[in-house]
Amino acid sequence: MSMTIAATASTAAGGDDPILFRGPFEETIPQMAALGYRAVELHIYDSDQIDRERLYRLLAENHVVLTSIGTGSAYERDGICLGVLATLGGIVLAGSLTGGLKWWYYPAPGGATGVQAALWTAAFVLLAACPLIFDAKEAIQWRASRSRA
Fold it and tell me: What is the pTM of this model?
């Protein structure tokens, strides 16, 4: 059994991010290969801005495999996502603290009725679904690009 050591690369990493190679992938992937790395973890802010076919070709030409995609820098820089999650979480928390939601394995309307109960329940459902929605969107995009490659 052999171990492949990967390096990290990003086109837009912050100064404190633990990224070894910074700059366009057209430059960093050949640099990694020249130094002996055979795997890469790419940190991508917006995958819509990546030409996936070109990226796959670049990886193949340099005999480097893509081990993972890091999205931490996207969440760090993207205040909208954080704002939405904080708002939904705040609504769910307010519903719980005021007795409007009762908790078992999931929240259910407790003392609240009508619009209040619907708002708190909808906020919880959306909050819980956010990771699934984001992951499904990315999976569809990457699957579509792989089928064209």
Answer: 0.52
